[in-house]
Specification:
The complex is a heterodimer. Chain A is of the alpha+beta class. Chain A is 32% helix and 23% strand. In chain A, the strands form six sheets. A five-stranded mixed β-sheet of chain A has the order 3-23-22-19-18. In chain A, strands 13-5-4-20-21 form a five-stranded mixed β-sheet. Chain A has a four-stranded parallel β-sheet with strand order 7-6-11-12. In chain A, β1 and β2 form a beta hairpin. Chain B is mostly helical. Classes of the chains: A alpha+beta, B mainly alpha.
Chain lengths: 470, 313
């Protein structure tokens, strides 16, 4: 039974959607269709696009936006945000532990080889004290829903989660399209995010900082798929948007080339992967990073957000241990459930997965963006056979999960409202003194009927996400 | 401000100015073809020269024909200085410096790119040319309007304006230099008027035929036109005007940063060549020599600004 968030399993709208439902009932279909087009041209004008690699024409694409919001009550959100906060706290504690005493390995709660043999584990970070003790300044937690009270964490994003600009622009677009709606339905604002981001980053400034911390955003450049988001966030924070070639070592600091000379950076919000951060420490061919930044970092000369090496916490193999990790560091049961996960590295699990391959979703441990995965129920015989071969060759590379019956939220189609599957990525900011969670997050929606894949690279769209005022 | 950002702004506005200038050249040429019975080939050749596109055009076309020249200057993707290519470069620079622009300026630039990309994607029919040229002019006016209406008057604005006026000075000097021979007194019999085609092209290339008419009651003399385009401080495309603006904006940067660079001295030196000077004394040293020198100085000034403000490291 698929749970629809607007209608539940009934014909009448659920509580959080009541006001919206009575508003949309009054709207003419023609006006709504026009508003849909208006929204699209607004996105195009604003330039909210993502780049597609390897395509000459139409290099910049819009992520489709649907004008029907996804709505959560404040009660639903309070529960979710408690679970998110607990999980993010545990992730940071786990990272500190893994790069210091490794108590959790000593206690046998997480297998040692899962860490030591993991590419996302950076030996260079062992013993490093990140400023303020914060590893994951920005986290995105992917959550799916299957029923009235059934929420699951699908994935943690502890490296450089993206999509927050869509959360903000989706709201701006809705405010422009339907101002009257927001006076009828009270929605918690999201627009504080950039200010909170700046505040959070400033609060983790390194010891070398003198005066007001200088924050900069490091982007791989104009051709990166998320460049719009990088420039958007820098702009909203009032921070410089820098690339590797704008930076160099200067008097023991990382400094950016300005029109008046070099200026030291205190906090670098980097949107460049670990591997490209420092050619002297990691990938020697990288042109995107800054040679020597890791030495400055270790010496307390700069804050790198997120810290290098956080990938060990959002690895899909580690994911299956998250309930234990939460319990180990918080002493509490995890508020948010994990999706049951089979680790193909374990022979019993592998046998089960191969037997039930048609009912499972199988993912690469290091994959992302919906690439390299098999959705069993939707795959052809040949695809399944090919995947099983890969799986048997390198079982450690894969995990498997049951196909969840994801909740749906209606989208506006030519034939009126029609249910489509959604997920939710709330964004969390971590500083030494506070964990700040923006109410809502980014709702991604699979636009194809019946599809469960919400990734923008695979034909997904987005919706504005509302958390109602109490 | 990042050096890279200053450079991005400078080039963004150079490119925008250049696209407008190219459109204006094409407009002057098209007008000639329509209203004058002379064969247009010479005029179109000099337009290509002014746009700095003669060589690249010759590589692709055997003969100078209005249709081909228009297509080459406005929409040829392989011509890096076609309006289509330049507007894309301007918009790429705008994306690079997105954090320095107001939302209005960015959106105007993005609109400019989107609408011209659409308009220039298909060959332009004769009857559509005025519309296309009008659109180019209108779109760059929107960007300029947004710049003036919404941007802070700080270093961001100064670098943007420097790009505009450096490009414009270069453009005006080129227009004059390509035609300098028709303005030379030796080619000009006392008492007779300039060949109408020639002076009309010059004035139309800077959208100043009407202004000139008002000031000089239609008396198109070489000295009058040269004076107007070189020394007249009221004329927003004259060399004196451009250099006054360049010096102003460099001056604001000097006051703001508290540093005087080599580029300040270079700009002042060029400006002083035109201050309190009569057009006769320019003809005395040679118009061509003067213009060539000015183009060279402007180029050197651009490079010096680039170094002084660390555009590239």
């Amino acid at each position: 039974m698929i749970f629809d968030e607007m209608f539940g399993t009934e014909q009448s709208p659920r509580g959080p959607y009541q006001d919206y439902a009575s508003w949309i009932d009054q709207e003419e279909a023609k006006r709504l269709a026009q508003k849909s087009l208006d929204a699209e041209s607004l996105f195009r004008r604003t330039g909210i696009t993502f780049n597609v690699y390897g395509q000459q024409e139409a290099q910049e694409r819009l992520i489709p936006f649907d004008i029907v919001p996804r709505i959560l009550s404040s009660r639903e959100w309070t529960r979710l945000s408690k679970g998110i906060e607990q999980r993010v706290r545990a992730i940071n504690a786990f990272l500190y532990d893994i790069y210091h005493r490794q108590e959790i390995l000593r206690a046998g709660r997480v297998p040692r080889e899962l860490i030591s043999e993991n590419e996302a584990f950076l030996p260079e970070m062992i013993g490093v004290e990140p400023p303020g003790g914060v590893y994951t300044h920005i986290v995105g937690i992917d959550i799916v829903r299957t029923g009235e009270n059934e929420f699951f964490v699908l994935e943690d994003n502890a490296r450089t989660p993206s999509g927050v600009s869509y959360m903000l622009e989706n709201r701006e677009t809705m405010l422009q399209m339907f101002p009257e709606l927001f006076s009828q339905v009270r929605v918690q604002p999201v627009s504080d995010y950039p200010r909170n981001l700046h505040r959070s980053l400033s609060e983790t400034a390194p010891s070398a900082t003198s005066g007001k911390p200088v924050v900069a955003v490091l982007t791989p450049g104009i051709h990166n798929s998320a460049y719009y988001e990088h420039s958007f966030l820098a702009d909203q924070m009032g921070a410089e948007l820098v690339e590797g070639h704008d930076l160099r070592l200067e008097d023991g600091r990382i400094a950016m080339r300005t029109t008046r000379g070099y200026q030291a950076i205190d906090v670098l919000y980097r949107r460049v992967d670990d591997d490209f951060l420092d050619p002297l420490t990691f990938n020697p061919t990288s042109m995107l990073g800054v040679p020597g930044i890791m030495d400055i970092y270790r010496a307390g000369g700069i804050t790198i957000a997120n810290a290098p090496g956080t990938g060990i916490a959002d690895d899909k193999a580690i994911y299956s241990y998250m309930p234990d990790i939460v319990e180990f560091y918080t002493g509490e049961k995890a508020i948010l459930k994990n999706v049951p996960t089979y680790r193909c590295s374990e022979p019993d699990a592998l046998a089960y997965v191969l037997d039930n391959i048609n009912d499972l979703v199988i993912k690469e441990v290091h994959g992302s963006g919906g690439y390299g995965m098999l959705v069993g129920p939707a795959a052809s015989k040949r695809e399944t056979a090919a995947f099983a071969k890969k799986l048997k060759a390198r079982p450690k590379n894969y995990i498997a999960q049951p196909t969840l019956s994801l909740s749906t939220v209606p989208i506006l189609t030519k034939a009126g409202l029609a249910p489509r599957h959604v997920d939710l990525r709330p964004f969390v900011l971590v500083s030494p003194g506070a964990i700040r969670i923006t109410p809502g997050g980014l709702t991604r929606v699979a636009l194809k009927k019946g599809s469960l894949v919400v990734n923008s690279s695979q034909g997904g769209g987005t919706k504005d996400t509302w958390v109602l005022e109490e | 401000m990042l050096g890279k950002t200053a450079g991005g702004l400078f080039w963004m506005f150079r490119y925008l100015e250049r696209s407008e200038n190219t459109a204006r050249l094409v407009e002057a040429g098209a007008r000639m073809s329509l209203t004058r019975s002379v064969s247009g080939a010479d005029e179109w050749s000099s337009i290509l020269t002014t746009a700095g596109a003669s060589l690249s055009y010759a590589e692709r076309h055997d003969s100078v024909e209005p249709q081909k020249v228009i297509d080459f200057l406005l929409r040829d993707k392989d011509n890096p200085s076609s309006v289509r290519s330049i507007v894309e470069s301007a918009r790429n620079n705008a994306r690079l410096v997105r954090t320095a622009l107001t939302r209005e300026v960015w959106e105007a630039t993005n609109d400019c790119y989107l609408s011209l990309r659409e308009e220039l994607s298909k060959p332009i029919r004769d009857r559509d040319l005025p519309h296309v040229l009008g659109l180019i002019r209108q779109q760059s006016a929107y960007v300029r309007g947004a710049l003036h209406g919404t941007m802070m008057r700080n270093d961001i604005f100064d670098f943007s304006r420097l790009g505009t006026f450096l490009e414009r000075a270069d453009n005006t000097a080129r227009i004059l230099d390509v035609k300098y021979y028709v303005l030379l007194p030796s080619n000009f019999n006392v008492g007779s008027s300039l060949d109408n085609v020639q002076w009309e092209t010059i004035l139309r290339s800077v959208s100043a035929e009407r202004a000139y008419q008002w000031l000089h009651s239609g008396d198109a003399t070489p000295v009058g036109i040269a004076d107007f385009l070189i020394l007249d401080r009221r004329m927003p495309r004259s060399l004196a005007f451009c250099y006054a603006k360049i010096c102003d904006n460099l001056g604001y940067l000097e006051a703001d940063y508290g540093v005087r660079h080599t580029s300040h001295d270079l700009a002042d030196a060029v400006r002083s060549q035109m201050k309190d000077r009569s057009i006769d004394s320019i003809f005395d040293i040679g118009l061509h020599e003067f213009l060539i020198g000015l183009i060279r100085d402007t180029n050197a000034l651009g490079q010096q600004i680039e170094r002084d403000y660390r555009f590239n490291g």
